[in-house]
Write a structure and sequence with these properties.
With 120 residues, this protein is an all-alpha fold. It has one domain (16-105). The protein has four helices and no strands. It has helices at 16-34, 41-56, 69-84, 88-105. Helix 1 runs parallel beside helix 3. The radius of gyration is 15 Å and the shape is globular. The model is unreliable at 1-8 and 110-120 (pLDDT under 50).
């Protein structure tokens, strides 16, 4: 059954820095929920740290720069979805993908992609 908890509708961030701030708050919610699974605590903590590191640079060199309305709405919508998650396992899944979603939404070109083994 999908998560059904009604989440708040966040204000749409006007700047890149504001978008990162709401994304970091959403990431913290995911981490808190994921940490409720005791056996997964080290993994969740590592994912949260990596996500914070990725998001902390996503505002770019000018966090006060205006954010295009469609991008701002996309970040707010993603954060609203995060607020609706009630399942700790789903929260853990989102911890690993949410930072990349925000980076792509903000137009980050340096999104980390998985390494592919070299052809022998």
């Amino acid at each position: 059954m999908p998560d059904a908890k009604p989440g708040p509708t966040l204000a749409v961030p006007a700047t890149r820095g504001a978008a990162v701030a709401v994304a970091l708050a959403a990431l913290a919610v995911l981490a808190e929920l994921g940490e409720t699974i005791e056996d997964e605590w080290p993994y969740v903590t590592a994912l949260a740290e990596a996500g914070r590191a990725r998001l902390s640079t996503a505002a770019g060199p000018d966090p006060a720069a205006s954010l295009a309305p469609d991008r701002a709405a996309a970040v707010a919508a993603a954060c609203d979805e995060i607020a609706r998650i009630t399942d700790p396992h789903r929260a853990i899944d989102w911890l690993s993908t949410f930072p990349a979603v925000v980076q792509l939404t903000l137009g980050e070109s340096a999104v980390v992609t998985p390494a592919h083994p070299a052809a022998s």
